[in-house]
């Protein structure tokens, strides 16, 4: 009542005060009732209804929203993150009621330095930035892609405990090449084709300058940029400030941790990773990011002259050095004629043929194309040279997965290790056996990478910091879990794993002398922390949703 008096609220509210716990229960009851009332309706209708009720809570009461999200992360992540966030982006202009985050468009050129001061919070620590050009596997969604930074930052709050007042989702609207959106009367973005070349880069440059003028130490995560700009911006900025590209680097770390897990699942020592035959389908930002990090790992294990057995395919089939106009980023993974002639393979060979002839240990999809691991491809994995062949269908959202787990276990056999990018239920194999479905999604790493980088006050995010994140995730699982085909922790443990990953990243920054400290904790203090103390320090810095007093006695 003191608060009500001080804030001039007496009479503007009903007399009884409802506690946080009661509000929580009331929301959860409303959510369960919505589940009952929408039973039997199409998945998309149910998912959007769930997203709406959560989004309304987000707008109304941030503290309660994040508490229900944290406590029910397994149920709610698929709504605020993949797969439903994809559907939300596709329908964003129709669903739009109020804005969230900031929108910088090509029309704002020359204005961004003053615009950044329109953001009402005084401090921003974490920014997720997209240009909407490659939203999950759904293509160019223009301004509607803002849903992705919002969803990623929700995961930052839930998993890394970043204070929601200090996050900023950003859309750089440079136009769209999506004709359907350009013709949609409700479309909320610029109605012009995407900027290209120097014009495009000048917009991104202006934005990053503006951000750093106001918040020099904010960590910037680039998300869902089409491959050419993903690589170009990473190259352009990574040495200049604290940024990373989640699709290239976050995904790579999660995939590498999973690949290490598959070696352990075969009962082999980790160094055997250098001998694994890995077929990667998709030569975009994600696929190339994974191969680059895998190559670095093989070089560490077997020396720089190691010759890894990686095979890379894109929409034109197997990539070889004979490929005309080859993407320079794919060149290190292109096969030379002599490497494949014994296998009877050739430039442009199709996926089924490659799998049949290579007999890979791992088949990993980051193509964005649903169903391309069809029956023939999956059956060919039965002839794999591994005792536990691994199938990673990592594309998002659900319909874009290269295969579903039911088909994978049915056609490739019950001994496989399986992972998908979006969540699927475990598969009942009969006889009391369960086919475990892992979620190989960068959500296991990006919150820890961002948090570790932030708390270290690192000048930039180095490969060593990213490797530390991947190794931390890989070693999180016990041998017993790995033997059961469980490669990643349950999402219920996301805060715990993020604290460990964050600490690993922070310690790597300190070891490389990149850490400048954060807040009251200077570089010297960070240097003197043991591993356990660092983890505790990271945990202590996580925000947790509770009501604070609004007026102090
Ligand atoms: N699970 C996770 O954590 C992550 C999943 N992804 C998913 O990966 C997918 C790809 O993302 P990006 O690499 O950024 O896209 P991208 O557009 O840069 O690359 C797609 C690649 O797939 C190839 N491709 C297209 N059709 C193909 C076909 N029929 N057969 C073989 N290859 C084909 C293209 O040639 C291109 O090389 C998306 O669906 C995205 O959601 C991306 C990042 C993280
Ligand atoms: C998970 C993610 O970052 C993607 O699908 O793009
Ligand atoms: Mg992404």
TrEMBL record:
Catalytic activity as recorded in UniProt: (S)-malate + NAD(+) = pyruvate + CO2 + NADH
Compartments (UniProt record): Mitochondrion matrix
Any one of the GO BP annotations: malate metabolic process
Active site (record annotation): 81 (proton donor), 152 (proton acceptor)
Domain of life: Eukaryota
UniProt keyword GTP-binding present: no
Cofactor(s) recorded in Swiss-Prot or TrEMBL: Mn(2+); Mg(2+)
Domain Malic enzyme N-terminal: 58-238
A cellular component annotation (GO) from this entry: mitochondrial matrix
Residues where a divalent metal cation binds: 223-224, 247
Pfam families, sorted: malic, Malic_M
SUPFAM superfamilies: Aminoacid dehydrogenase-like, N-terminal domain (SSF53223), NAD(P)-binding Rossmann-fold domains (SSF51735)
UniProt cross-references to InterPro entries, sorted A to Z: Aminoacid_DH-like_N_sf, Malic_enzyme_CS, Malic_N_dom, Malic_N_dom_sf, Malic_NAD-bd, Malic_OxRdtase, NAD(P)-bd_dom_sf
Sorted UniProt keywords: Metal-binding, Mitochondrion, NAD, Oxidoreductase, Transit peptide
Cofactor notes: Divalent metal cations. Prefers magnesium or manganese.
Binding site for (S)-malate: 134, 396, 441
Domain Malic enzyme NAD-binding, residue spans: 248-510
Family (UniProt): Belongs to the malic enzymes family.
PANTHER family associated with the record: MALIC ENZYME-RELATED, NAD-DEPENDENT MALIC ENZYME 2, MITOCHONDRIAL
Name this protein carries in UniProt: Malic enzyme
Organism: Capsicum annuum
Lineage, broadest ranks: Eukaryota, Viridiplantae, Streptophyta, Embryophyta, Tracheophyta
């Amino acid at each position: 009542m003191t608060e009500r008096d001080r804030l001039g609220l007496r009479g503007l509210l009903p007399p009884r005060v409802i506690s946080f716990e009661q509000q929580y229960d009331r929301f959860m009851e409303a959510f369960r009732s919505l589940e009952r009332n929408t039973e039997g309706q199409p998945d998309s209708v149910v998912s959007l209804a769930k997203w709406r009720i959560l989004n309304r809570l987000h707008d109304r009461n941030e503290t309660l929203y994040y508490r229900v999200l944290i406590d029910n992360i397994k149920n709610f992540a698929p709504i605020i993150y993949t797969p439903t966030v994809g559907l939300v982006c596709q329908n964003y202009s129709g669903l739009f009621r109020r804005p969230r985050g900031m929108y910088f468009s090509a029309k704002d050129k020359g204005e961004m330095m003053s615009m950044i001061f329109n953001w009402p919070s005084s401090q921003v620590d974490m920014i997720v930035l997209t240009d909407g050009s490659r939203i999950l596997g759904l293509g160019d969604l223009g301004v509607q892609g803002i849903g992705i930074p919002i969803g990623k930052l929700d995961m930052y709050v839930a998993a890394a405990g970043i204070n929601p007042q200090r996050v900023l989702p950003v859309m750089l609207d440079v136009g769209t090449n999506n004709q359907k959106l350009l013709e949609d009367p409700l479309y909320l973005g610029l109605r012009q084709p995407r900027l290209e070349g120097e014009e495009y880069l000048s917009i991104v440059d202006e934005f990053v300058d503006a951000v750093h003028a106001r918040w020099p130490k904010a960590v910037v995560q680039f998300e869902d940029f089409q491959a050419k700009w993903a690589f170009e911006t990473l190259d352009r900025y990574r040495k200049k400030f604290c940024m990373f590209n989640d699709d290239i680097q976050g995904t790579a770390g999660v995939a590498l941790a999973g690949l290490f897990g598959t070696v352990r699942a075969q009962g082999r020592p980790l160094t055997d990773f250098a001998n694994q035959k890995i077929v990667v389908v998709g030569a975009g930002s994600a696929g190339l990011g994974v191969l680059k990090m895998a190559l670095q790992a093989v070089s560490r294990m077997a020396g720089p002259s190691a010759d890894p057995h990686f095979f890379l395919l894109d929409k034109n089939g197997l990539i070889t050095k004979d490929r005309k106009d080859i993407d320079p980023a794919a060149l290190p993974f292109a096969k030379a004629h002599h490497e494949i002639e014994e296998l009877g393979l050739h430039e442009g060979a199709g996926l089924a043929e490659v799998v049949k002839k290579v007999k890979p240990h791992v088949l990993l999809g980051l193509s964005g194309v649903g169903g391309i691991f069809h029956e023939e491809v999956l059956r060919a994995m039965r002839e794999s040279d591994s005792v536990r062949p691994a199938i990673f269908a990592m594309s998002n959202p659900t319909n874009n997965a290269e295969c579903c787990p039911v088909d994978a276990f049915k056609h490739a056999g019950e001994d496989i290790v399986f992972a998908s990018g979006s969540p699927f239920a475990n598969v009942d194999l009969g006889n009391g056996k369960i086919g475990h479905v892992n979620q190989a999604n960068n959500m296991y790493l990006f919150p820890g990478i961002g948090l570790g980088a932030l708390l270290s006050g690192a000048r930039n995010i180095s490969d060593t910091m990213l490797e530390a994140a991947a190794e931390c995730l890989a070693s999180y699982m016990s041998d017993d879990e790995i033997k059961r085909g469980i490669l990643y922790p349950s999402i219920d443990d996301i805060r715990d794993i993020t604290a460990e990953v964050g600490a690993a990243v922070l310690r790597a920054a300190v070891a490389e002398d990149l850490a400048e400290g954060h807040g009251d904790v200077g570089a010297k203090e960070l240097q003197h922390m043991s591993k356990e103390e660092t983890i505790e320090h990271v945990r202590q810095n996580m925000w947790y949703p509770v009501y604070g007093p609004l007026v102090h006695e």
